[in-house]
Write a structure and sequence with these properties.
By secondary structure, the chain is α+β, with helices and mostly antiparallel strands. The protein is 23% helix and 29% strand. A six-stranded antiparallel beta sheet has the order 3-2-1-4-5-6.
Length: 120
């Protein structure tokens, strides 16, 4: 299973907006190169996908074909966007969890711990 996390969207003037804007610009432009652990709090859980292949997860979240939709276990229908640079993927296989960020080319493991408490 792969859980997808995407950066929260904040309105200008909202509490924490400046910190969020800096993190948003850093991760959407440079992916894991400028990622810092504090940024995890700026992400929301958006989808669970029935795959263990990162490339397949990227395709599912960008093509949205009928076949892809069959592999979506759960999705936040109100605010989920296509997968892009800066999104976080939590890959769980046999209770082992690894966390990756979508980069400009491919995926980079960012840390082995869980985020947002979804994995054990």
């Amino acid at each position: 299973m792969i859980r997808v996390f995407q950066m929260k969207m904040l309105d200008k003037g909202a509490e924490g907006y400046d910190e969020w804007l800096n993190a948003f610009r850093s991760t959407t432009a440079f992916g894991s190169k400028l990622f810092e652990d504090y940024m995890l709090d700026l992400y929301d859980y958006k989808a669970s996908l029935n795959t263990t292949d990162l490339e397949n997860a990227f395709q599912i979240m960008n093509r949205w074909s009928d076949e892809d939709k069959k592999l979506i276990d759960w999705i936040d229908k109100g605010a989920t966007k296509s997968m892009s640079v800066g999104d976080i993927l939590e890959l769980e296989v046999d209770a082992n969890v690894r966390t990756y960020m979508v980069d400009g080319y491919g995926f980079t493991e960012i840390r082995k711990a869980m985020i947002n408490g979804f994995a054990v």
